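A favour between colleagues. Tell me how you read the following sequence-structure pair.

===
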Amino acid sequence: GTLNLTNDFTVGTNPSLFVDTSQTTGRVGIGTNTPGNMLDVVNSVNTGNTYIHVRNTGAGNAGVRMQNVNGEWTVIANDRLRIIDDDAGLERVSIDSSGRVGIGKTNPDTLLDVQGENTVVYDPLNVPYQSSCNVLVRNNDTTVLGTYAGVMFRVYGGNSNATRATIGLVKTTTSGSNGALVVGVRGSSYGNIIERMRLTSDGNVGLGTTNPSSYSNGYITLTLNGSNTRGGVIDFKTNDVLYGQIENTTTRFLFQSSENVPFEFAHEGATLMGIESNNQIYIGRTTSVGDEQL
């Protein structure tokens, strides 16, 4: 049958259950006679944990469904925790029993597995951004020089000896959109994370410097900046064997070859001149003839 009540009623003395029968509020309180929401659960008896337990004794879903005029979402627990967009009929977030989180992926393979569904075609001269990317790391302060948004990577234990690295975007002007992609790595002495590489919005790259060289004539630069009397070294290897090297210090600039490989100058694949390891020179040939030497 039907129980019709016109006045509020209470069950128990704590009270255990309170029902506000007003047509305008219609609130229910468990553990309170002054519910502040449609359902208000208060544990005032002891300091233990308080839960709302939604249980299914079979294999079916157990969850909570939420809806207003703008949409409907369901949170379900079965073999995994699932957050479902009922309007689209899609599972947006999944957390499996191993703690792996999937965004846009129902069976995540890693601790965080993000899968996008956009169909934007990549254009290197008009790179898609924001809604077309799978992950967005944002800092909304757009006016302060040096504003930073980034991601940190960390391996091993405590703060004092953890291996750390970061990659992020730093604002390099107080107006406009200029910025730089920066990579930082913690040094071997367990000190601060230090910037090791920078890619500017002009396409210039700096290693060991926060100010890579820039020229107004359209050149793209690679700047290597060492410390003390050292500058930079570029090694050329095959199968980890060194065959050539470019090096500079404050006193010299050095081109050298290794493993008895000649040092050659060429144009469009044709050798113009070469220097062999015994100091013999050849011009217009691929090997020396006789005793041509410097």
User: Anything to note?
Assistant: The chain has a mean pLDDT of 86. The chain is about 0% helix and 40% strand. The two ends are 114 Å apart (CA to CA). The CA atoms of residues 98 and 149 lie 29 Å apart.
